[in-house]
User: Fold this.
Amino acid sequence: MISLSRTLLFLLAFGLTEQAVAQADYPSKPIKLIVPYAPGGPDDLVARILSKPLADILGQPVLVENHPGVGGTIAMSFTAKSAPDGYTLAVADTGQLAIAPGLYAKLQYTPLIDLIPVSNVALLPYTLAINAKVPANNVRELITLAKSRKDPMSCGSTGPGGSSNLGCILFASMAGLDILQVPYKGLAPSVMAVLTGEVDMTVSDLASVARHAKDGKLRLLASTSAKRAPAAPELPTVDEAGVKGYSLDIWIGVIAPAATPRAIVEKLNAAIVKATKTAEVQQRFRDIGYALVGDTPEQFGEKIRADIEKFGQIIKSANLPRQ
Assistant:
């Protein structure tokens, strides 16, 4: 009996020691950074800007992998089921972590149970953009035009559950419009669809549409945030432009599988915060109009929790169907 107890204690101690050594040596191999959309969108952009400084700080390559589909929820499910060893992380945004719980009846993960926040990285200005040939110069004119047409206007987005999708749905619901939702595998393809006239409009991050608006290929009508975007102060908010109460604030952060050891989460958080303070990263984010955050896991968790409640209420009050 004593021998068996000693053996069990030895094995337990050996296992704990082995785990402690693994955490102390972390990272000892490349890290995967999963992106929930196709290349070219804001999540992908944030991941690729962060990957090099993170690799320099952590001493291992940070490899960006795109796993698009179903508003980014496929990537979250993949991440939640990955080994909780710090070698599979994901970039995630408001869509997958705060909007999806209220929009999907059978979501394959629970954000604050199956995933652990590492750090919120950036706040993104989103805009309502239309094809340049759509005869509307502001939100009120767009609403009047949509109501006058026999066939519904169309809005391209990242698909069910994505931030841009909810932005489109929320706009249609609050403006009293029938708008056809057209899903794409990322923001970049949805913006391209607006450029070619395949769809009439999109709700997209400012960085993805600003240069096209400057070239006259798109027209920016309003910012979706509660306040005007610092990167485009001339744009009114959708609320100011005529749809009272409309607000869609978007953020992007880094998450890990839920059982990832605290020591590894803290090391990753410190690396991300350090990366956001480098001159190169700050300049690149200024260039695209994103506001850097770099907070603690606890602060990011509180933001996710608050926004799950906020968007859940928005979805319910707008009578949006659960998918």
About this structure: The chain has two domains: 27-123+250-317, 126-223. The radius of gyration is 22 Å. The longest strand covers residues 115-124.
